């Protein structure tokens, strides 16, 4: 199997372009009741928000942790919308100095929800400023330089911080501890993805049957963002190749058109992307199924070990192709089967040396 020809962006869980941002905006659920899956988190969030409303106070600070594309930004928007609160969006990598954060914090209005995406990538100095802001709604601003510098306290409007991270482990404990509620988002089950897709198809005016939706759900790596992206390609296919007899003229899609569209884009039956396949093939061929250490693996595929650990492995483990052992990563029998290979015997390996 050749893994070099899969369009990487189609199965990448990260947001790919401004066009996709606009597309996502149109499909984003606007309330907790429209938000599919993550049942436990939804219930916990509902309780937290209702209690805050009943007591007339700002909700506790919330941290959403989990792989990209599972709905962290969507939930942050819902937190604001459900409480009828204004929302300010910021991103960790853009906060390079404490001053960047001070400018945002000092301009918040009472009750505002401040969303910081990729909060683990914020500058250290800003992180420290955030501790006090979260706890006491206050920051200390340094005025002047050198020996004459003094710190001036500044009261902030009460706000709710919603942080999102794909790497909860990288957050320092003092920051993590200041969130009143941490929600870990899980990959979605196939039936939940079908619900996401049903809703998106109806918003797109695409006439598509259950079997076809199930086929897309099975290939989108448990991730709503990818589900919507694949649906978009299926919609194009239906538009061009079907007789457009659907109610909106957007075309009709069935299992055959879904398979044809996804085959055209090299999306395999398990939704493995180029990097997944590269990782698995290296474990299978070069390391005879493992165990192989994370860093060795990362160097072999030319990728950051952070990406392998946070994005690639969770999915491969979830679909049962990989296991993590104390000695390293090991391919499962299903992995050998999926790639149509067999472990080399010890003799063959020695011959190779
Ligand atoms: N539970 C859900 N129900 C319906 N649609 C969803 C759900 N979760 C996510 N989506 C869809 O997936 C898209 C991506 O979600 P979102 O931007 O919230 O992910 P994210 O976890 O914030 O990703 P990132 O880590 O890259 O910022 C959204 O446009 C939304 O339409």
Automatic annotation (TrEMBL):
Positions of Mg(2+) binding: 73
Membrane-spanning parts: none
Residues annotated to bind ATP: 27-28, 69, 72-74, 135-137, 178, 188, 225
Keyword flag Transport: no
InterPro entries in the cross-refs: AAA+_ATPase, AAA_lid_4, DNA_helicase_Holl-junc_RuvB, P-loop_NTPase, RuvB-like_N, RuvB_wg_C, WH-like_DNA-bd_sf, WH_DNA-bd_sf
SUPFAM superfamilies documented for this protein: P-loop containing nucleoside triphosphate hydrolases, Winged helix' DNA-binding domain
Signal sequence region: none
Cellular component, GO, one term: cytoplasm
Chain positions recorded as DNA binding sites: 324, 329
Catalytic activity: ATP + H2O = ADP + phosphate + H(+)
Keywords: ATP-binding, Cytoplasm, DNA damage, DNA recombination, DNA repair, DNA-binding, Helicase, Hydrolase, Nucleotide-binding
Domain AAA+ ATPase: from-to ranges: 58-191
Localization of this protein: Cytoplasm
Record keyword Transcription regulation present: no
GO BP term, example: DNA repair
SMART domains: AAA
Gene3D superfamilies xref list: 1.10.8.60, P-loop containing nucleotide triphosphate hydrolases (3.40.50.300), Winged helix-like DNA-binding domain superfamily/Winged helix DNA-binding domain (1.10.10.10)
Region called Head domain (RuvB-H), residue ranges: 269-353
EC number, as in UniProt: 3.6.4.-
GO molecular function, one term: four-way junction helicase activity
Predominant localisation class: cytoplasm
Role of this protein: The RuvA-RuvB-RuvC complex processes Holliday junction (HJ) DNA during genetic recombination and DNA repair, while the RuvA-RuvB complex plays an important role in the rescue of blocked DNA replication forks via replication fork reversal (RFR). RuvA specifically binds to HJ cruciform DNA, conferring on it an open structure. The RuvB hexamer acts as an ATP-dependent pump, pulling dsDNA into and through the RuvAB complex. RuvB forms 2 homohexamers on either side of HJ DNA bound by 1 or 2 RuvA tetramers; 4 subunits per hexamer contact DNA at a time.
Subunit structure comment from the entry: Homohexamer. Forms an RuvA(8)-RuvB(12)-Holliday junction (HJ) complex. HJ DNA is sandwiched between 2 RuvA tetramers; dsDNA enters through RuvA and exits via RuvB. An RuvB hexamer assembles on each DNA strand where it exits the tetramer. Each RuvB hexamer is contacted by two RuvA subunits (via domain III) on 2 adjacent RuvB subunits; this complex drives branch migration. In the full resolvosome a probable DNA-RuvA(4)-RuvB(12)-RuvC(2) complex forms which resolves the HJ.
Homology family: Belongs to the RuvB family.
Designated name of the protein: Holliday junction branch migration complex subunit RuvB
Taxonomic source organism: Microterricola gilva
Record gene name: ruvB
């Amino acid at each position: 199997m050749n893994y070099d020809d899969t369009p990487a962006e189609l199965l990448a869980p990260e947001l790919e372009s401004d066009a996709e941002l606009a597309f996502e905006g149109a499909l984003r659920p606007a309330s907790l009741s429209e938000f599919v899956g993550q049942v436990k988190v939804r219930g916990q969030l509902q309780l937290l928000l209702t209690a805050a409303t009943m007591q007339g106070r700002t909700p506790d600070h919330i941290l959403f942790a989990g792989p990209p594309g599972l709905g962290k930004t969507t939930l942050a928007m819902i937190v604001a919308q459900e409480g009828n609160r204004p929302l300010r969006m910021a991103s960790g990598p853009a906060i390079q100095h404490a001053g960047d954060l001070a400018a945002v914090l000092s301009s918040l209005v009472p009750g505002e929800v401040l969303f910081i995406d990729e909060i683990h990538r914020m500058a250290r100095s800003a992180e420290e400023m955030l501790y006090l802001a979260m706890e006491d709604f206050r920051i200390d601003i340094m005025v002047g330089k050198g020996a004459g510098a003094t710190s001036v306290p500044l009261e902030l409007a009460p706000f709710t911080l919603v942080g999102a991270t794909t790497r909860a482990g990288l957050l320092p404990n003092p920051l993590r501890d200041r969130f009143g509620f941490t929600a870990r988002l899980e990959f979605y089950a196939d039936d939940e993805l079908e619900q996401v897709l049903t809703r998106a198809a109806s918003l797109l005016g695409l006439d598509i049957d259950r079997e076809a939706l199930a086929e897309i759900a099975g290939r989108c790596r448990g991730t709503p963002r990818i589900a919507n992206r694949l649906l978009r390609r299926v919609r194009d296919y239906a538009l061009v190749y079907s007789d457009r007899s659907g109610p909106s003229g957007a075309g009709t899609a069935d299992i055959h058109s879904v398979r044809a569209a996804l085959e055209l884009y090299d999306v395999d039956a398990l939704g493995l992307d180029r990097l997944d396949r590269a990782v698995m093939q290296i474990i299978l061929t070069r390391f005879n199924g493992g165990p192989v250490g994370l860093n060795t693996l990362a160097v072999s595929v030319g990728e950051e070990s952070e990406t392998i650990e946070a994005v690639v492995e969770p999915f491969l483990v979830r679909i049962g192709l990989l296991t993590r052992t104390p000695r390293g990563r090991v391919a499962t029998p299903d992995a050998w089967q999926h790639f149509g290979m067999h472990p080399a015997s010890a003799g063959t390996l020695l011959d190779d040396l």
